[in-house]
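Hi there, hope your week has been kind to you so far. Thanks so much in advance, here it is:
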Amino acid sequence: MIENLALVRTQLGLPASVVGVDDDTLISLAQALDGTAIGFGNDSDLVDVSGWRTSFGFSPLEAFQVARAGVEDPIVVFNSVGHDADEIAAALAADPVWGPLLSAETLGDTTVYSWGDATETHFDRTGPGRPLGRAGTLAVTNDSVVRSYDPALLLAAVGEDPNLDRFAPFADIVQALDEAGAYAATLSADPVLFDPADSGLGEDEARALVDSSPLLGDYEALGFGGLIVDGQIRGALMVFAFADDAAAEEGAAALREVLGNGDSVYGGGAWVDRLGEPTVSTRGRLAIVELPEADRGYGSLLNAWFRRENLFWAAVQN
């Protein structure tokens, strides 16, 4: 977890307080620079491609599909990266800063690389993919490269951990995203709760906001991905997994209201103007939102999710 945000601000060259740059946005920026919030076609100006290839033997922007799960310490899967396992191994070993700390373990057809503590911050070891000097862990399989700051989560993702219960809600979501042809996706098992006390709004304003914005109910997991429409990177898909079919119907009704008639919490205007007309449907316990008109839809949803916007609100934090 990125805990010392003051140090992060210093490292990224930001003053202690920046209008419009709250801590969530700061974490989003830090992760983008860290290679853990990269969506294909988004944030490309933040990625040092040649630096990544020198340090890691591949670049995130070479990936055909990118999947991401988690908020502050996410796991990222780079699929169809066209990577060369030997090139990656050589680059990791040759890195003058991190190479001496490198250890590798072979698990079947997977090689897992680590550099000591995965999350500790070392500002004297910053570089491409590590602007905060955090080691992380890396796994190389036959068809993907997986990166995470949680070694246990990484092992589970590459099939080396038999305890996969925490991934169960994602199964149906991933299937829906795959069927829609999503090229990038973000997954989370943490429903977004609106906390009036942390919103920066006055009590009356926060209460009016809650009263005017439908709540989705207690969904178990969510996923949203970017689409390619008519050959263009455009549009998005949102998928919410609820406990049962009835809860999904209630969540779908709330999504129709907030996306069709609601406004952004943070002054971004009407959602329909930003994302286009939504098509909301249910499939069993899933509520599915199609947004084919959303320009840079995946990036827009990723930003809205980091900002804890009302189109993700499950409930109000007491």
Q: What stands out?
A: Residues 245-261 form the longest helix (17 residues). Residues 1-5, 11-21, 25-46 have pLDDT under 50 and may be disordered. The CA atoms of residues 7 and 72 lie 16 Å apart.
